[in-house]
């Protein structure tokens, strides 16, 4: 008698990436991918983050050794580098999304890892379109009505810049002792804003003629929220007891 083989399970991170790509594809976005080994130019300089900019201190990085005269390279710290790679070879309008791994040399705990995933979106339109796009994505992903809130922030490659929060889907907003939102009713998911004119000029796009938004979300955190996973390290330790639940 032939032994029955058990079917495998798709990892929750892969489930998210597949679903996110499908949602944005339905919304008319181009799905793009790029190198995880990136140059200093694409990862920082072209995103309006020069060598002396304090924003670099927020991203402890894994730099690679290089020969004299060779361009500095690193494991990318943000998928925002794909904005530049995408725009430099095309003419506007732009509508793209990129999901991939990023690397930062920082201490690990329940909500932080040295290797994690980001989702990057670029759409050359208006601030109103930014909020409606984010709202539509989360409504479709969580399959319920999700409210989106913006808070002022700073990112070198957007102006104005915003922190993005979504309404807590576990307690429906402000339940005391909620493990997800800590009773606030809101969960921070990432940053957003209008693309900085210097970034557009760097790819030969006239900021007086074209405007648009970009946002980047931590994929791992959204997966944790979606499936009630309380420690980011569980997503990467290879324990099949986690994967087999999905």
Report a brief summary of the structure.
With 246 residues, the chain is an alpha+beta fold. It has helices at 12-26, 40-43, 81-88, 127-142, 197-202, 219-227, 240-243; strands at residues 30-32, 37-39, 73-75, 95-103, 115-123, 148-155, 158-167, 186-195, 213-218.
Features:
single chain, 246 residues, alpha+beta, BirA Bifunctional Protein, domain 2, seven-stranded mixed β-sheet, 7 helices, 25% strand, globular
Describe this structure in words.
- By secondary structure, the protein is of the alpha+beta class.
- The chain has one domain (12-143, 197-243): BirA Bifunctional Protein, domain 2.
- Helix content is 25%, strand content 25%.
- It has 7 helices and 9 strands.
- The chain has helices at residues 12-26, 40-43, 81-88, 127-142, 197-202, 219-227, 240-243; strands at residues 30-32, 37-39, 73-75, 95-103, 115-123, 148-155, 158-167, 186-195, 213-218.
- The strands form 2 sheets. Strands 1-4-5-9-8-7-6 form a 7-stranded mixed β-sheet, sandwiched between helices. The protein has a two-stranded antiparallel ribbon with strand order 2-3.
- Strand 6 and strand 7 form a beta hairpin.
- Helix 1 (12-26) packs across helix 6 (219-227).
- The longest helix is centred in the middle third of the chain and has 16 residues, at 127-142.
- It is globular, with a radius of gyration of 19 Å.
- The two termini are 29 Å apart.
- The model has no long low-confidence stretch (mean pLDDT 83).
Q: CATH fold name, please?
A: BirA Bifunctional Protein, domain 2
Q: Briefly, what CATH class?
A: Alpha Beta
Uncertain spans:
none
Structural class: alpha+beta
Biggest beta-sheet profile: 7 strands, mixed
Q: Count of DSSP E strands?
A: 9
Order of helices and strands: HEEHEHEEHEEEHEHH
What's the number of helices?
7
Q: What strand line-up does the widest sheet have?
A: 1-4-5-9-8-7-6
Question: How many domains, in number, for the residues?
Answer: 1
């Amino acid at each position: 008698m032939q032994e029955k083989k058990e079917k495998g399970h798709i990892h929750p991170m892969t489930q998210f990436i597949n679903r996110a790509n499908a949602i944005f594809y339905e919304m008319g976005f181009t799905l793009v991918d790029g190198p995880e080994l990136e140059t200093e130019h694409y990862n920082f300089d072209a995103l309006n983050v020069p060598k002396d900019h304090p924003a670099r201190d927020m991203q402890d990085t894994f730099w690679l050794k290089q020969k004299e005269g060779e361009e500095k390279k690193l494991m990318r710290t943000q998928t925002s580098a794909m904005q530049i790679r995408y725009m430099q070879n095309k003419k506007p309008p732009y509508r793209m999304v990129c999901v991939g791994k990023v690397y930062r040399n920082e201490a690990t705990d329940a909500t932080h890892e040295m290797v994690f995933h980001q989702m990057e979106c670029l759409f050359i339109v208006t601030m109103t379109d930014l909020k409606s796009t984010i709202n539509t994505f989360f409504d479709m992903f969580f399959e319920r009505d999700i409210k989106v809130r913006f808070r002022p922030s700073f990112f070198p490659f957007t102006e104005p810049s915003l922190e993005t929060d979504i309404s807590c889907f576990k307690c429906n907003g402000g339940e005391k002792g909620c493990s997800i939102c800590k009773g606030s009713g809101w969960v921070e998911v990432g940053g957003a804003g209008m693309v900085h004119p210097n970034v557009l000029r760097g790819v030969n796009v006239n900021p007086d003629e074209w405007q648009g938004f970009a946002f980047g979300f931590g994929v791992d955190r959204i997966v944790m929220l979606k499936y009630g996973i309380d420690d980011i390290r569980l997503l990467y330790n290879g324990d099949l007891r986690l994967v087999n639940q999905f």
